[in-house]
From TrEMBL:
InterPro entries: Alpha/beta-hydrolase_catalytic, Alpha/beta-hydrolase_N_dom
Positions of the Alpha/beta-hydrolase N-terminal domain: 44-250
The Alpha/beta-hydrolase catalytic domain, residue ranges: 267-555
Protein's name according to its UniProt entry: Alpha/beta-hydrolase family protein
Keywords: Membrane, Transmembrane, Transmembrane helix
Membrane-spanning ranges: 28-49, 55-82, 94-116, 128-150, 176-199
Chain intervals with Basic and acidic residues compositional bias: 1-15
Chain intervals for the UniProt region annotation (Disordered): 1-26
Pfam families recorded: Abhydrolase_9, Abhydrolase_9_N
């Protein structure tokens, strides 16, 4: 939404319209149109996930607006160095632009369809909407015009403010202060009114949904579950996702039928937003219910930080329980009403507090038990849950000394420990699968079945494992993408990322940003979808006995039947 900064109050790309002459709408500049054309064509280059026509149109429209603004700025800077006024382009110049646009856009559109086909092939996606593809150019044009008019609206506001200030200060000072005032006003409106208003409205809407109980879920009859008989946490306070967590999962019979060994009924403790008024109180209530149900007498204890509205991936917990023969307990709690993708953007502080308070409350009880009576203490989290889970620890040694193992899946790029381990990885290791200090504690993998590097180094004692797909936009999205090329793009791509993906200033940022809401809409093993990988991940971290490779394959079919 960059305004036409070349058009200061006394400088114009073309002569002003004479009185009575009808003004063309929209009034475009030639340099801006060349920039818009270039960035529109570049927007068709591939990113991490397959894109439909509507989404591609949105990205193309945003890219065109950015390109238009950059073209206008470039022309303004060039005229300043050339020390000349703006001139109206000739008809011939516009004809060349139109001819070039037809050829270049056609080529970009064609290559774009080919690249999207290749990405769908890599991920096993068969969906393709012809009508959405046809609508792509029209969506792009609409988005471009909306952003263009928004930018020009800000420019008019700037002119009015600068003119008002010009009554008391010099023209240059009025222009500078005018831009600062308009920029501050626009940001305050967006962040303080529009953004907060949207978040508040979403919070209210999803809080109503939180009162529902998922279909097929019933209040547990076992005292080993929160919300069940004798529980310190009422069923009605668990929230939708809490009820789904405690009201489902494998029973001792299910686990025993699979392993052909004696199994125990797993313990599941949970606290919802309605359970207590603040994060610390909710954590204490969840841990008190965990202790009541005998969770600290189990062999394996898992502290899990949820995502979004309190969601717990069944694949993560079910795998943990099967591989532990049911001799396990899991505790989690809710910290937001918002769904995962929205919590990812606005609830980072709540996730941080939840992860820290819950682990500290568990550790306080666990550390006071006799050493020979303590369960093995594990930590897990997916997406924003991994962000919250990390906050309870200061680094590698803390993870190793206070846990028996950790499994994080799809960590957001802003995770503090994830960034520390990745940024300080061993020389020569790629960002998509880094090696940190010879892998002595922390390791990373796309697929645990293919060997977790470094395969020739010992991995003793506590194991901390990050599952992260090369095509997961949650892992790779960062504001830095707008202006700097990350290592993961310049290095060899992962198995489900096209080699044709390149970094382009501004464009790549919006492409990966557009991938975020659709990161879970791809088959398991790609994007932000981690299901079957939890079986091999927990097998690696827990190191259970009595499970053959064939058993693990069968368990994957149980955990994720569609996989």
């Amino acid at each position: 939404m960059t305004p036409d900064v070349h058009e200061s109050p006394d400088v114009h790309e073309s002569p002003p319209d004479s009185p009575g002459k009808r003004r063309r709408s929209p009034r475009l500049t030639l340099p801006g149109c060349w920039g818009a054309l270039l960035f529109t064509c570049l927007s068709f280059t591939p990113s991490l996930l397959p894109r439909g026509g509507i989404l591609q149109g949105l990205i193309a429209g945003i890219s065109a607006a950015i390109g238009y603004g950059l073209g206008v700025i470039a022309a303004y800077v060039w005229r300043a160095f050339a020390d000349r006024e703006a001139r109206s382009p000739s008809s011939r110049s516009w004809q060349i632009l139109c001819g070039s646009a037809l050829v270049l856009f056609g080529l970009a559109f064609g290559f774009g369809q080919y690249w999207q086909h290749e990405i769908r092939r890599l991920m096993g996606v068969s969906d393709y909407n012809v009508l959405a593809t046809i609508a792509c150019p029209f969506v792009a044009a609409l988005v471009f015009l909306l952003l263009l008019y928004a930018g020009r609206g800000l420019r008019r506001l700037y002119r009015w403010v600068a003119g008002l200030l010009g009554r008391w200060v010099g023209p240059r000072a009025a222009q500078v202060v005018g831009w600062l005032v308009v920029a501050a006003l626009a940001w305050s409106v967006f962040s303080g009114v529009l953004l907060s208003g949207f978040v508040n409205a979403a919070n209210e809407a999803f809080s109503l949904r939180d009162d529902e109980t998922p279909e097929g879920v019933h209040q547990p009859t076992s005292a080993l579950r929160s919300g069940g008989p004798g529980s310190l946490v009422p069923w009605g306070s668990l929230g939708r996702e809490g009820r789904a967590f405690t009201g489902s999962g494998p029973t001792a019979g299910d686990i025993g039928s699979f392993t052909h060994r004696r199994a125990l009924e797993p313990v599941r403790a949970y606290a919802g937003l309605e359970t207590a008024d603040d994060t610390e109180s909710r954590a204490k209530r969840a841990v008190a219910d965990l202790e009541r149900a005998g969770g600290f007498q189990r062999a394996n204890l898992l502290v899990l930080t949820t995502t979004g509205s309190g969601w717990v991936d069944p694949a993560a917990v079910d795998s943990f329980e099967y591989l532990g023969d049911g001799d396990s307990a899991t505790v989690a709690m809710q910290y937001s009403y918002l769904p995962s993708w929205l919590s990812y953007l606005v609830d980072q502080s709540k996730a941080r507090a939840a992860g820290r308070e819950l682990f500290d409350a568990v550790y306080d009880v666990w550390s006071k038990l006799p050493q020979d009576k303590r369960p093995r203490l594990f930590v897990a989290g997916e997406s924003l849950g991994s962000f919250g889970g990390e906050t309870a620890f200061s680094g590698e040694y803390d993870l190793r000394n206070r846990t028996a193992g950790t499994l994080f899946a799809g960590p957001p790029n802003f995770n503090a420990l994830f960034r520390e381990f990745s940024d300080h990885r061993d020389k020569g290791s790629p960002e998509i699968e880094p090696v940190y200090r010879d892998g002595r504690t922390v390791r990373f993998t796309e697929d645990p079945t293919t060997g977790i590097p470094p395969t020739d180094e010992p991995w003793n004692d506590t194991r901390v494992l990050y599952l992260m797909h090369a095509s997961d936009p949650i892992v790779w999205w960062s504001p830095d993408l707008a202006l700097s090329e990350p290592d993961w793009i310049g290095q060899a791509p992962g198995p489900d990322v096209l080699e044709s993906m390149v970094w382009i200033p501004f464009v790549t940022f919006w492409q990966v940003t557009a991938d975020l809401p659709f990161s879970t809409g791809v088959p398991d093993g790609h994007g932000h979808t981690y299901k079957a990988a939890y079986v091999d991940g927990w097998n690696t971290v827990m190191r259970p006995t009595g499970f053959t490779p064939q058993d693990l394959d069968r368990l994957k079919d149980v955990i994720h039947p569609e996989g």
